[in-house]
């Protein structure tokens, strides 16, 4: 089979795994300054799946797509050190305050701009919000199938992809047509380490924003080596409707943030009977998960 | 997310030595490759930043893959299946991770897929890998063989074999035989040419680390009827060819993950490396020097691992109502371990820098004629490497054993159990003073640095003449005192005009010189970072007392009593 065109959605997140005393501000929001910014762990699992396909199917390209402030260019470099071909940083002040709906809107427009594509691969969820919504919403907006909780992409041919999914009580193997969106679970293989040569080669990669703060030497280097430029796309570049972005495009309102200790189980098995679904809906409305 | 490079600031300190400027300049030939290769360095700063970043990758893989695998690798070990060595699961995973990260063949030129790393960062990577798993460090470290092929092989051999290293090919150096260990001149494995002019190997090799490697360098007797080192040549054997039987894997005390094999060659085709008859006297000598530097790096890595285990245990273990680290008997041991690590590490990277400079000049001399000044530098650093390498191998390997011993002792009874990593580290350390030349053989090589005055010369003409801060005056005066005492002691031994008598005291004399040299190296480190003053002072005090003891023994020794030490006296 000829090469695939893969887009990996990745997010730079505060490292909430080693939370110290100053991780929260007095108003209950995350103190990003106190937490190191890292590559969202499950997005690294997603990247590994993409890189494995790149090894398996010559001619495959892997492009990282991330939305965030200028410093998020760092995770595009990080992906390039591990074998990604390049990346695009969606950055614009107008994106600030976007919830999962607005984010998936922006990402889906960027994916459209990169179309045609074969596979969008993303981590299941990000460790700062833990919503697991962005991947499925992007699929919905693109109008393509989605396979969530992927643990291993078993095979791909021209029309169809076969994926093993990690479920609570076992694994499930599914097939789906291309193009599609896949979200990857943390039980998938860990991402490979950086490659020595890619690290030396791409450590000079800079986004336009970063270049403005770089020396003359750097500007010359970028001219000589165009592959070192990390593209930046603004609202205008992806033709986004301002009303669907940022705070105005984000129906999610944070009421309060509190420390909780999980006591329940991660998931529950429900049947597809009307009774079960109605019960769940009522429960979620009551505890304000929705509505 | 452990990182064995980032969590040890001493490594970056040694990497950032001012001597690197010259080394990088030479190694990169004024950065000539930057326009033709997208991962060549742009300038000195870019090179140093790249070494730093690559070592960070090494540290990551070591901290998160190799070290966590070490215990299971030790328990499982390799096995022999259908004439092939199957690595332990963890060993295979380690090798795969390093290969995928492009970390095999690091020192090779870029045109062969390498990273063109100088010795200093390469040796540092070896130290880091050894801290994670000393046994695995052998498998990784045998990429040294690539360096020998690169240095002495023909263009055809280089093009055939070198690009395979970066893709993950493993290597072995097949020197030892049942009757040729320390005395390699006795090697008997036979190389003869068939009617088509192809060299065929026949014979047995023993104690061969990674004997089932993809690419093996084999020392063999190519000159029929000879009995000494001048009849030996070096060959390269490709495992894809037939003719090799792995007879067994040895069952060892330590470094159990590293397969040590007995090999039988039967009409195994091989290619000659370099010229006939130079196998032992030139190529293997060079290979052994690299390997000794490698074992020294391994020893420092083992010491670091042992020290960290001991420190952790001493902080956690409570007896008599407080952590044992508060007791003088324990904290003195820990402090001594720590300063010995500082000292051996400074000696390691000083030696690596010497090797870097002369090897670079050697390589440049293949491309163009060296200027007079360059030639004299080449000779100077070659000589320094020749006397520093055996001293380093001796000191580092003996220290790693002492440190592992003390580290286990700090664990008390728990250290004797299989429950803590220290028992493995203790077993792994034991080989370092044996292979690639025993400590006793290192002394035979290093004593030349004593009798020729080479050590005294660098101490007096270089280290002593450096400018030190006034606060270091006292420590410097201790070192100059030790130097005078050393000179007097050497003179007394040499005055007997008896080589055997010199050999008898040789280890004492080499260790005296080493204590002075390491003392000065630590003092030089203080100039770059004041926080090293404490280890320098402790080490120099310790070295002074050791030298006093050795000097007292030698000065009081009545040479006429020398005979009473001998077994089967010859006269």
Describe this structure in words.
The complex is a heterodimer of chains A (291) and B (571). Chain A has 291 residues and is α/β, with parallel strands linked by helices. Helix content of chain A is 29%, strand content 23%. Chain B has three domains: 9-165 and 281-433, Up-down Bundle (Butyryl-CoA Dehydrogenase, subunit A, domain 3); 171-276, Butyryl-CoA Dehydrogenase, subunit A, domain 2 (Beta Barrel); 446-562, Up-down Bundle (Four Helix Bundle (Hemerythrin (Met), subunit A)), CATH 1.20.120. Chain B is 58% helix and 11% strand. Chain B contains 18 helices and eleven strands. In chain B, the strands form three sheets. In chain B, strands 3, 4, 5, 6, 7, 8 and 9 form a seven-stranded mixed beta sheet that branches. In chain B, strands 1-2 form a two-stranded antiparallel ribbon. Chain B has a two-stranded antiparallel ribbon with strand order 10-11. In chain B, helix 2 runs parallel beside helix 10 (328-367), helix 10 (328-367) crosses helix 17 (499-528) and helix 14 crosses helix 17. Chain B is globular. The N and C termini of chain B lie far apart (65 Å).
């Amino acid at each position: 089979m000829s090469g695939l065109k893969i887009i990996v959605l990745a997010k730079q997140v505060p490292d909430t795994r080693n939370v110290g005393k100053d991780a929260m501000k007095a108003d209950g929001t995350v103190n990003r300054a106190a937490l190191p910014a890292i590559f969202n762990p499950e997005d690294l699992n997603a990247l590994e799946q993409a890189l494995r396909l790149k090894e398996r199917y010559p001619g495959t390209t892997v492009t990282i797509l991330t939305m965030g402030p200028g410093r998020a260019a760092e995770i595009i470099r990080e992906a390039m050190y591990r074998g990604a071909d390049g990346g695009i940083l969606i950055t614009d002040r107008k994106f600030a305050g976007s919830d999962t709906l607005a984010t998936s809107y922006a990402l889906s427009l960027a994916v459209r701009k990169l179309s045609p594509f074969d596979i969008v691969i993303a981590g299941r969820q990000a460790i700062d919000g833990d919503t697991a919504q962005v991947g499925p919403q992007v699929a919905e907006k693109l109008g393509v199938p989605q396979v969530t909780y992927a643990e291993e992409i078993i095979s791909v041919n021209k029309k169809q992809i076969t994926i093993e999914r990690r479920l609570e009580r076992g694994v499930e193997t599914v097939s789906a047509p291309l193009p599609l969106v896949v979200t990857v679970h943390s039980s998938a293989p860990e991402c490979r380490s950086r490659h020595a040569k890619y690290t030396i080669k791409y450590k000079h990669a800079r986004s336009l924003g970063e270049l403005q703060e770089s020396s003359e030497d750097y500007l010359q280097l970028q001219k000589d080596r165009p592959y070192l430029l990390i593209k930046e796309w603004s609202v205008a570049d992806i033709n986004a409707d301002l009303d669907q972005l940022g705070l105005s495009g984000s129906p999610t309102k944070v009421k309060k943030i509190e420390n909780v200790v999980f006591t329940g189980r991660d998931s529950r098995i429900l049947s597809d009977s009307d009774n079960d679904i109605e019960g769940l809906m009522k429960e979620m409305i009551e505890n304000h998960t929705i509505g | 997310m452990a990182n064995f490079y980032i969590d040890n600031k001493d490594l970056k300190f040694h990497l950032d030595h001012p001597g690197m400027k010259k080394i990088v300049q030479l190694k990169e030939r004024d950065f000539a490759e930057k326009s033709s290769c997208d991962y060549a360095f742009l300038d000195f700063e870019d090179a140093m930043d790249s070494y730093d970043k690559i070592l960070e990758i090494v540290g990551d893989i070591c901290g998160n893959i190799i070290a966590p695998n070490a215990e299971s690798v030790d328990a499982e070990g390799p096995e022999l299946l259908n004439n092939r060595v199957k690595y332990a699961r963890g060993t295979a995973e380690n090798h795969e991770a390093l290969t995928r990260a492009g970390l095999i063949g690091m020192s090779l030129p870029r045109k062969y897929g390498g990273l063109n790393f100088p010795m200093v960062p390469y040796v540092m990577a070896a130290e880091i890998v050894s801290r994670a798993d000393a046994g695995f460090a052998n498998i990784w470290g045998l990429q040294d063989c690539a360096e020998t092929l690169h240095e002495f092989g023909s263009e055809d051999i280089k093009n055939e074999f070198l690009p395979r290293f970066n893709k993950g090919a493993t290597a072995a150096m097949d020197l030892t035989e049942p009757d040729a260990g320390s005395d390699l001149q006795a090697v008997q494995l036979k190389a003869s040419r068939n009617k088509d002019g192809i060299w065929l190997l026949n014979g047995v090799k023993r104690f061969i680390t990674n004997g089932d490697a993809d690419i093996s360098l084999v020392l063999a007797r190519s000159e029929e009827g000879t009995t000494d080192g001048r009849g030996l040549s070096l060959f390269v054997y490709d495992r894809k060819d037939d003719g090799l039987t792995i007879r067994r894997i040895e069952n060892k005390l330590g470094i159990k993950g590293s397969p040590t094999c007995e090999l039988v060659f039967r009409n195994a085709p091989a290619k000659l490396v370099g010229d006939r008859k130079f196998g032992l006297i030139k190529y293997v000598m060079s290979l052994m020097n690299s390997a000794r530097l490698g074992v020294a790096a391994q020893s420092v890595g083992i010491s670091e691992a042992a020290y960290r285990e001991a420190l952790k245990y001493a902080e956690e273990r409570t007896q008599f109502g407080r952590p044992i680290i508060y007791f003088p008997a324990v904290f003195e041991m820990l402090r001594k371990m720590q300063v010995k690590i500082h000292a051996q590490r400074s000696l390691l990277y000083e030696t690596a820098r010497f090797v870097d400079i002369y090897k670079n000049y050697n390589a440049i001399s293949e491309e163009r004629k060296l200027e007079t000044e360059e030639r004299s530098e080449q000779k100077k650093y070659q000589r320094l490497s020749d006397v520093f390498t055996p001293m380093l191998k001796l000191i580092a390997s003996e220290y790693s054993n002492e440190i592992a011993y003390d580290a286990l002792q700090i664990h008390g009874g728990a250290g004797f159990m299989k429950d803590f990593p220290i028992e493995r580290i203790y077993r792994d350390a034991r080989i370092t003073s044996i292979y690639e030349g025993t400590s006793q053989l290192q002394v035979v090589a290093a004593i030349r640095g004593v009798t020729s005055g080479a050590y005294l010369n660098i101490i007096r003409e270089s280290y002593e003449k450096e400018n030190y801060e006034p606060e270091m005056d006292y420590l410097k005066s201790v070192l100059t005192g030790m130097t005078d005492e050393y000179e007097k002691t050497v003179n007394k031994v040499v005055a007997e005009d008896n080589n055997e008598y010199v050999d008898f005291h040789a280890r004492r004399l080499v260790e005296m010189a080493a204590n002075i040299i390491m003392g000065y190296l630590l003092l030089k480190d203080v100039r770059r970072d004041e926080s090293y003053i404490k280890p320098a002072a402790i080490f120099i005090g310790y070295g002074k007392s050791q030298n006093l003891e050795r000097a007292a023994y030698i000065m009081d020794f009545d040479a006429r009593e020398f005979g009473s030490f001998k077994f089967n006296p010859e006269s």
